[in-house]
Design a protein that fits this description.
This protein has 7 helices and 6 strands, in the order E-H-H-H-H-E-H-H-E-E-E-E-H. It has a 6-stranded parallel β-sheet. Helix 1 crosses helix 3 and helix 2 packs antiparallel against helix 3.
Length: 200
């Protein structure tokens, strides 16, 4: 992939890349459980918010999960600053295919339909056709994957895509070994990453 003949295929994660999952979790947890200890965004470490709350106190894991498993949570997420504009611009770039590649919660009752509704609300119906919903992103063929999860593993030990780590509160402290790359925000030069991949 990435040759001049084939379009550049880009996968965009949703939560933490397009939609502000972390900010909403903290805001809703604070509103529902004001007396409980909480993890501020600058204190977040590790991909799983549930496990970090569990480390504070065992029962807090279920409480924080009840926040993001509740109806309306995913639909109400705010877009990450600059994300919607970047996606639209990327979508209209020549020789570029853009897909939203997102993993549903294991308790998927509300999140699946709300992810679809969020995409339609914020990006339009044409993007609903570009949603790839999977628990294993390694089996999806592409050139680039922008994702805030620092380690992505699955059935395919050598995925076809290069993983660009999108900076989020829980991964901003990580030092990436070369040649891994990071996009600090949508104000960062994402176009340079696409063009560098095109040249490979």
């Amino acid at each position: 992939m990435g040759s001049a003949a084939a379009p550049l295929r880009v996968l965009l994660d949703m939560d933490g890349v397009l939609a502000d999952f972390e900010g909403a979790v903290l805001r809703e947890f604070r509103a529902r459980f004001p007396a409980e200890p909480r993890v501020e965004l600058e204190q977040r470490r590790g991909f799983s918010v549930r496990e970090q709350y569990r480390s504070l106190r065992e029962d807090l894991a279920a409480k924080v999960a009840s926040v993001y498993e509740s109806p309306g949570f995913f639909l109400s997420l705010d877009p990450i600053p600059g994300a919607l504009e970047a996606v639209q611009e990327m979508f209209h770039m020549q020789d570029t295919e853009v897909f939203i590649c997102t993993s549903p919660l294991r308790n998927y009752e509300h999140c699946v339909v709300e992810k679809y509704k969020w995409v339609e609300k914020h990006l339009g119906p044409e993007f609903v056709e570009r949603i790839i919903l999977t628990r294993d992103k390694t089996v999806v063929a592409a050139d680039l994957l922008f994702d805030d999860k620092d380690t992505i593993q699955g059935a395919e030990p050598k995925p076809s895509w290069e993983h660009i780590l999108f900076t989020c509160c829980h991964n901003q402290h990580l030092q990436l070994p070369a040649p891994r790359r990071r996009l600090r925000s949508w104000a960062d030069d994402w176009k340079a990453i696409l063009e560098s991949k095109r040249r490979q």
